[in-house]
Design goal:
single chain, 318 residues, seven-stranded mixed beta sheet
Amino acid sequence: MARNNIDATGWLVEGKDSDVVKAFIATSAWEKVARPLSMTGNAVRIPRIADMGVAVIAKGAAYPEDTTSADTVLIDAVKIGQALRIAEEDVDDEKLADFIEFKKASAGSSFAKLYDNAAIGTNAADNGLTVPFTSLYKALTTVDATTGYTANANVLTANAAAFNYGVINSLIALAEASPYFDESQLTFVASPRFRTLLRGLVDTTGRPLMYSDIANGTTVNRLMGIPIEYTVGATVSTVATATPTTGAGVKGTAGNALLGLVLKSAAINGTRKAFESVYIPGRDGTSALTDEDILKVRARKAAGVTTPNPHAIFELIA
């Protein structure tokens, strides 16, 4: 049978207040720490332009001309989705709506975890499928000749026993050394496994490094004054997954927990198509033979960093 790639009219875009979108936004850290980009095509080239310098000019002298070069970073949107078959006998008619909304909300949470892992923790090259994006971890462990970034220059590693105030201070120092440094744009993104370690850390005067305050009516968790978001996606993995393995090994081992420091303006959260869902009753087509309804959800997303230099990452090893 020929495949028709034109979107069916039955797909409904999930509203901003829908359970699936709220679950995605609540769960995804990359959604919060990266710059949102509305994509007009499946592939978008983002300008990556060096800062234009200025100089003091003598009276009557000619203006010096900027000679910095410009290039672009290409990001591609991928489709993330799932289908669920529902036997009509298994769901009471009056409970079907609640069941569907619950499933859509859980799909939103799973979307977020997989998206975060793809954006933050995958350690392999982008292949558009099992590794849909060049993750933050991959970008920081790979040489970037265009920007002059050296592989692993902004990556720190240590085991749990050596994780202390000095590690956090050194991680921030890597971001501060970047010419793109902007404290207001920085956010930590971490595996929840760091929560136990961070609760016990204090500075040289004995004050806790992690605390919470209220900003615009919302509780904000901070680490040394910088906001911090948690996601299970901040875990090293060989392929993008909503359920990364946990553990600790040598650098690059799947399961190692990550603590990233992200500059929002140099990180991309791309959306080609917002969350959509369609409910297909099992009263026609092949599903009519088995009395099965089908729920489908999907979105097209992209992620990446425009340049590795402003970011830093710590990897917890064995």
